Amino acid sequence: MTADNQREHQPLVLVADDEPDVLGAVVPFLQRSGFRVLAAGDGLLALDEIRRHSPDVCVLDVLMPGADGRQVLRALRQEENWVPVLLLTQVGEAVERAMALEEGADDYLNKPFDPHELVARIRAVLRRTRTEGPPLATAPVLVSSFGLRVDRVGRRAWLGQRELVITPKGFTLLEYLMVHQDELIDRARLLEVLWGFEEAVGTRAVDSRVAELRRVLGEDAAEPRWIATVQGRGYRFVGEVHGEEGLRRV
Question: Where is the Response regulatory domain (predicted)?
Answer without folding.
Answer: 12-126
